[in-house]
Amino acid sequence: MNQLGIDKYGFRFFVNRNEGDWKMPVEFHSEYELFYALTGRGFYFVANRYYSFEAGDLLFIRSDELHKCQSFNGEPFAAFVILFDEKILELMRPCENESLIPPALTVQSSGFCHHARTLPESRRRIVGYLERLRDEYSMEDSHSVEIVSCLMHALLIEVARLFAVQDSGASDVIELPRGAKFRRAVMSAMSYINANYTDALTLGGIAAQVFVNPSYLSREFKKETGYSVNRFIMMRRISAARSLLRDSDRPVTEIASLCGYNNVTNFHWAFKKLMDMSPNTYRRQFRHITYGTSLEGDLLGEARHYVLEPQAPVIK
């Protein structure tokens, strides 16, 4: 995977160019992600849904949603990607009481469809905004922040228009075209885990739900996702816990229970294993971020990209 781009204005903008039999590890991050396919085609797993995409398609991934992108049958594809943090973008909002992220994109609904297919007219506008954003990234004059703010606002409104008319009842599991390499049992297992992560889950129980042998599921799951079934369950639970720690005042013991941990000690162990800090430290770190007038340096605070590589520490 080739990523071209820089970290500026409190969010990241880059172009993903992927070739060959490339497989992205499952990941989650605190930022929102906007993915616009430029060329080629592939599949995107987000939360408990699967989408096929081709040139001109958009995907909007919300904070802390597990996701994984994969090419179709080894075909190359390229995509514009923007990663942005809502709190940082608040500094750029055009009006005091107006959010830069339209409500159509932030409502936490289990029926939310992350995928939108653009029509020629909206495609021209979206590509125009993306190209202008790319150009402004290379500018160093005093007006760049204002221009980027306006472009981001216009882009997000255009995206919100598309998603507002999407069918929220889209199928959780897409029909895979011939030649797709993602195992259906793995897709079904990932969906089942995402829908039931608050319950007590075992490899045998999940395998029974998707009608395969536990050994087969264990082998194919690791091959396709880069993680064991137990690791994926842990990731799903901790991604939910992060959101609750940031967005609520619930005690840690209650959050542990809500995320599938009956033993708070096990929750602390799992959280620290993935995040390299305790739940309480994570909550304090997030809430003590100070947003000033500068859009660079330490202001990035929480806006970090957590890529959970197999058998590697969390990248911060």
From TrEMBL:
The cross-references to SUPFAM superfamilies, in alphabetical order and at most eight, read:
Homeodomain-like, Regulatory protein AraC
Per UniProt, residues of the HTH araC/xylS-type domain are 187-285
- Identify the domain of life: Bacteria
Task: Provide any one GO MF term from the record.
Answer: DNA-binding transcription factor activity
Q: What are the UniProt keywords, alphabetically?
A: DNA-binding, Transcription, Transcription regulation
> By what name is this protein known?
AraC family transcriptional regulator
The answer to whether the entry has keyword Electron transport is: no
Q: Which residues form the signal peptide?
A: none
In terms of InterPro entries, this protein maps to: AraC-bd (IPR003313), Homeodomain-like_sf (IPR009057), HTH-like (IPR037923), HTH_AraC (IPR018060), HTH_AraC-typ_CS (IPR018062), RmlC-like_jellyroll (IPR014710)
SMART domains listed in its UniProt record: HTH_ARAC
